[in-house]
Each structure stands twice: as structure tokens, then as C-alpha cells.
Design a protein that fits this description.
heterodimer; A: mainly alpha; 0% strand; disordered N terminus; B: 27% strand
Chain lengths: 281, 319
Amino acid sequence: MTGSDGCVAAGSPWLAARTLCWREIVRFFRQRNRVIGALGQPILFWLLFGTGLSRSFRMSPNAENGQSFLEYYFPGTLVLILLFTAIFATISIIEDRREGFLQSVLVAPVPRWSMVLGKVLGGSLIALTQGIVFLLLAAVFQLTLGAQTAVLLVLLLFVAALALTSLGFVLAWRMESTQGFHAIMNLLLMPMWLLSGAFFPVPPLDGTIAWNEVALHWVMRINPVTYCVAGVRRLLYDDFALQGIWTPQLGTCWLVTGCFAGIMFAAACWIAGKRTTGDLL
Amino acid sequence: MIEPTTDVSRAIRIEGLSHSYGARQALRNLDLQIHTGEVFAFLGPNGGGKTTLFRVLSTLITCQQGEVSILGFDLRTHVNDVRRRIGVVFQAPSLDKKLTVAENIRHQAALYGVTGKTLRDRQQAMMEQLGIADRANERAETLSGGLRRRVELAKGMIHQPRLLLLDEPSTGLDPGARADLWRYLERLRDESGVTIVLTTHLLDEAERADRIAILDQGSIVALDQPDRLRASIGGDTITIETEDAEFLAAAIRKQFGVSAEVVGSRVRLEQTDAGTWVAKLAEAFSARVQSITLAKPTLEDVFIQKTGHRFWQEKENAA
């Protein structure tokens, strides 16, 4: 349908998503403190906790898999890097809104989902890049991965990054200040990560454990992040190394992580599709 | 399906538009038509409803009540058709400060599906026209306010819209930059026939528009060409500064039988042969008159006449 004029702009949702995604990536690498913050802190945690806690860390008494805490903690750190980057990427929604950039996107002839896709994809690719950089550190303990495993691992990390970035988007969309986001991060995101088996294993249900450990087991089991961490762990280590650690099957990990990403992305599109007075900040 | 109207003389048609934020009514039953190819200004003090109206027209908020059609498309049912055809320049800067001038324009263009050679040609031409070509590779954060506003204009025009909406475009601009902006807008109107709709709280800026609607408390209190609005005032304006304005106004009314209003702490009269009146008043109330001024009517006088109150004090503070 054309109006009284001959030349009419026609926005394409995919082109819009691509340009917003690219903007996200360019912005990120032009803010050096964000690169350092998202990559530096998890590595620091990994080295400090990994080294400091290695003496007190012990797998179940019978297991003789010889995995050190540095190794155990490695998949969790990888997911933490994704989480941190996802958080920083989505906090920028609040800045976009405050600085006015978002307004011009909101009145452009593109559907809201393409805006969400651009933002989430950009954040996820940044997170994935940082994850891969960290993965190279695995060489430290002579961990070698086959080409197929490496590809699968990158793919899983990407799906997990999509899930976490979408989750961050849902939380950040209605927020008016970055301070508010920090509260959410401490109350929701960090506990989600802590209770994912990243930092300590899921207590196994073997009949001898106390009720509070049973509760912990189930809380960790319904946490979708648990399956991201477990999936990474299964791809990185063999069954022998995972002896004595409750780890869901790889297929389950893929399924849960995929659903987590799908549901969170749909939620992000839904929440962004509602025009609110928050658009006017 | 509503086909776009073929009547090209109306860029915007507003009928019975109302909008409220909770209990506060921001727009009250507006009716208005803006012609194609004119520069139209919404003039009014802050809180008058300009910003809300701008948000509705720019499709940022939905039209609650009433009918609005832009370039022949209903705002409620054809929002995407409207969005493709309008350019919007917000008051708050929409530039990404971490990106360069060229990148900012390129990203905006992609949102409107403008890419490749078309984009390169247009971008170059537009940057040259706006005098920002030599800044193409500088980051937006390093630019002055005036230059940023030019990049905003380039962003708003990159998809060659038929209608350009600008919210308080002069805010933060020095007089030189403001003059440049107006030269550019007038050229757009004259050479490309683009309809330009802007909001402003600056009376002298509104003078440059082809037509003005004065908004006060969510209603249009006056709508016409600036000179015709000024001519609608009975004559020239006489303003008298005095200690007790109420007393003097009453005395003038009693002695001369003409209308004299108190506006702020001054007495104000409108008369056709104002020169004679100045002499008459100065003679009759020489003890009370501190100063007496005679002026051709301004838009502020129109505003005062229509609303009964002063435009506002912030006029002096406006940058």
C-alpha cells in the first residue's frame, strides 16, 4: 500500500535486528571497563576460589576421580561469565532509555521483537566471545576437546547466553535505574548461579542426607541454570571425572537450556511489545 | 482497510483528541488540520500539552480518544504506515554517544530499510548539506550541542519522510545554531515540500512558522498565521508599571470607560491610537505611573488575551 508519496521507507525486521545487534557489539568493545568487568572478575574468582578452596573440596568419599576444585569450578565460571556479560548487556537497555536512543527505535517501522532480537543477539554474541576466551584457559590443565565437542560446547554456551540475556532483558525493561537492577542481580541472578551446581555440587538423594539437603537438591534441580552448567560439565569432562556428582544427562541439559532460552525470549518480546509510560523516560 | 486519503492538502488531521495520565487530563478534545508543505508550530508553556501531543503524533504513545490521521493513515490502525513516512527528532538526544556520526546515521537508516548505495549517496549529501561531513568519523560524544542536533536532523531525514516532527528543536542551541536550523527547515519545506511540525515554548521561534496553534492546559486557544494572530488584537499594547496595579486599572476603567486588565503586577490596555492614549494616561495618572510602554502586539499578547494569564516566567530562562 502506498500513500500519496512515491518514496516510502520500508523497514525490515531482520535488517533492524542485525543493525541493533552490531551496535551492541561495537558499543561493548568501545567501553573497555565493560570488557574487563565481565571477563576479569570471574577469572579472578576462579583463580582465588579454585586455589583457596581446593584443599577443603572433596568429592563423595568413595569417588576417586581426582578432580581438583579448579577443574570442578571451571564450567561454573564459564556460565558466570555468560551471566555477567548478559547482565551488563541488558543494563544498557536502561541507559538506552535514559539517554534517548531507545525512543528513536520505538518509533521506527519495525516490530518490537526485532528490537529484542537485536539486543539479545548482540548481548549473547558478546557473552559467547568472552566465554570462548575463557575456554582457551582450559589448556592450563591439559584439557583437550575434540572438534565435535568444541562445536557442541560453543553451541550450548550460545543457547545459554540467549537464555540469560533474554532473562536480563525481561528484568531490565521496566527498570528506571541501574541501581534497581543491582538489587535484582543480588537477590535473583547471583543465587540462581550459586544454586546451579556451579560452585558446589547438587547434594545427591541417597537416603542418608538431611531434610535441608533434600530441599537444596530440589531447589537446584528446578533451577534451569543447573542444566546449563551440567551440560557444559558433561561436554568438558568424561563420566569418570563426574563420578559422585549429581549431573543430569546431556539430552536433558540441551532440552532444558533450549526451553529456558525459548521461554525467556518469548517473555522478552511480550514485555517489550506492551507500550508503557516507561517508554517515555 | 482504510486507504490513504488522496487529499494531499492535509498532512495531519486531528478530531476530538483527548489524552489523560490517570486523573490529569493532558489534552482536551483537540480538533486541528495541518496542511501539506507548511511549517506548523505548537506553541505553549510547559505543561500545556505539547509534549503529550508530540508523543501521540510521533506514535510513541497510543491515541486514547479521538481520531488522528497522518498523511492519510489512521494512527490507530495503520501505525506502521505512519512510521515509515514520518521523521521524528526528539528533544532528548537520541544519538548513541559511543558511535560515530556516520555510524549513528547508518544504524538509523537500517531501521528504515535504507542500505547500500542509496544510503551512501543520501548520507553523504545530507552530511554535506548539514555541514557535518568532516565530522563523519568522530564519536557523537565529542560533538557540541549544535552539531549533535544536526546529526539528529540527518537521522530524522535519512529515509526522506514527507513529514518531519521536531520536539523543541531549539533547546540547547545558541542563536547561530538556531538560525542554521531554521534555514535548513525552510529549505526542506521550499525545495522538498516536506511538512514540518514542531513544538516550541519560544515565542520568537513560533513567529517563524507558517501557522501556529497556541496550546494552554491541553486545549488549543488560538490557531492562525502569526501576523493574523497579532492583528487579531485590537491595536497596540500599552503596559503600565505601577505600585498598585488593581487600583490603577480600576481608575482607568472609571475615568475613560475602556477595558484595562491586570496582568502580573502591570496594567495592560489595547488601543488602536495608542500614541494618544499614552499621553492621556501619563497626564491623568502621572503620580502613579512608574513607566509606560507602547508596543506592537506580540504572540505573548495574543496568549494573554486568549488565556488571561502571562505566558510564563521561564521565557527569560530558556536557553
